[in-house]
Amino acid sequence: MLAGRYLRAKRSEGGVALISIISFVGITLAVAVLIIVMSVMNGFRDELLGKILGFNGHVFVTGGLLDNAQARDLAVEKIARVPGVVQDFPVIDAQAIAMGPSQVTGAMVRGLTPKDLARTKIVAGNITKGSIKGFGAGDYGGDVVVVGDRLAEQLGVRVGDNITLISPSGGATAFGGTPVQKVYQVGALFSAGMSQYDQAYIFMPLAQAQLFFGREGSVDAIEIRVTDPDKAPDMKAAINRAAGPAALVNDWTQRDASYWGALKVERNVMRLILMLLVVIAALNIISSLVMLVKNKGRDIAILRTMGAGQGAILRIFVMAGGAIGALGTAAGLALGALVSIYITPIQDFVEYVTGQSVFSSDVYFLNHLPAKVDWTEVSIIVAFSLAASLLCTLPPALRASRLDPVEALRYE
Question: How far apart, in whole angstroms, are the C-alpha atoms of residue 10 and residue 107?
Answer without folding.
Answer: 69
